[in-house]
Each structure stands twice: as structure tokens, then as C-alpha cells.
Amino acid sequence: MRYLAFSAAIVAVAASVTATAGVAKSLPSCLSVLLPQPSGTIVDLTAFRPANCPNEKIQSAFRYDQAQHVSRARRVLAVGEIVPSFPEFGSALVRPGDKLRLVVSAGPIRIERDVEAIQTARSGEQLFVRGADGVVFAARFQEAIP
After folding, report:
1. 50-56 contacts at long range (C-beta below 8 A, 24 or more positions apart)
2. Fewest CB atoms less than 10 Å from the CB: which of 26, 29, 87, 137?
3. E strand or H helix that includes residue 49
4. What is the dihedral angle through the alpha carbons of 100, 22, 86, 79, rounded to the nearest 10 degrees?
5. In angstroms, what CA-CA distances link 37 with 12, 106, 113?
6. Residue 142: exposed, middle, or buried by beta-carbon count in 10 A (0-12, 13-18, 19+)?
7. pLDDT at residue 34, as a whole number
8. Residue 92 confidence class, pLDDT cut points 50, 70, 90
């Protein structure tokens, strides 16, 4: 379950979480690549797992895209390669086109509707979503507490 804040109301969005299961709360220093990552693509969080850092210096692997607020692969990342971590490792990511369930609550009233994300967002960030009727509105994304 994912949460959005809409004006003064609390808004919940239900969708599959793209965060890696079992990731520790503290950010690991290094990661092992599980799935190949082409250069320039938005980093797939499920394509990495925490790993021990090697003794030798490792090459930078990510760059931050300020326009979209995401990390991108700086170069091609091969399976098994050990790379430095990136800031959002382990946090959920909403991408444009993700289907979400919006739940608006105000006191005892609860309204639900299906929406689609039209921009990228991470927990705590504002994003725009579009309803099936084409109406676009802003909400704040938060990960659900299990």
C-alpha cells in the first residue's frame, strides 16, 4: 500500500512496491548487479542487492537526473559487477504509467478510485496522477507501513 497526501486529506494508493524486499534500513556502501542495466536508464531497484565493497577503488556507476528525481545508470552495468550504492536504493518508486488505487479519507468518509501516475516520485515527493475520467491532480506519495 502506498500513501499520498491530497490537500488536507490523507490519500492512499495501492500498488505493488518496487523496493527490494529485505533491504536493510541503512544504505549499503556497495551493491551487486543482478540484472544488466543499459547506460542512461532509470535504475531498476530490483536489479541490485547489498554487497561487500572490494578493497580496490570501484568506478562510478550512477548519475542523478534532477529533472526526474531519479538515479540513472552512467554506463552499462554487467551482471555480477560490484558498484557503489545510489541514494534511493531500497525506497519505493512510482513511475509514469503505474496503475494506482487512490483512497481519499476525511473523517468517516472514504472514497476510492483508480488513477495512473503521470510522473516519477519517491516517498515524500509530490506527483501528478490522472483519473480514468482524465482529471489530473497533485498528491504526495508515502510508502505504506506494513
Report:
1. 50/23, 50/24, 51/82, 52/82, 53/29, 53/82, 54/30, 54/82
2. 26
3. strand 48-51
4. -100
5. 31, 43, 34
6. buried
7. 95
8. low
Q: What is the amino acid identity at position 69? A: H
User: In the numeric block, which cell numbers belong to residue 131?
Assistant: 483519473
Q: In this structure, are residues 2 and 94 in contact, taking their beta carbons and an 8 Å threshold?
A: yes
Show the domains of the chain with their CATH numbers: 2-17+93-143 (2.30.30), 30-84 (no CATH)
Q: Which of 7, 10, 15 is nearest to 110 (CA)?
A: 10
The whole-number average pLDDT for the span 36-44 is 89
- Over residues 98-115, the pLDDT tens digits come to 888 777 778 888 888 888
CA distances from 41 to 2, 4, 50, 97 (A): 24, 26, 20, 16
Q: What percent of the chain stands above pLDDT 90?
A: 17
**Residues, the chain, total?**
146
44 grid coordinates: 531498476
Q: What is the pTM of this model?
A: 0.52
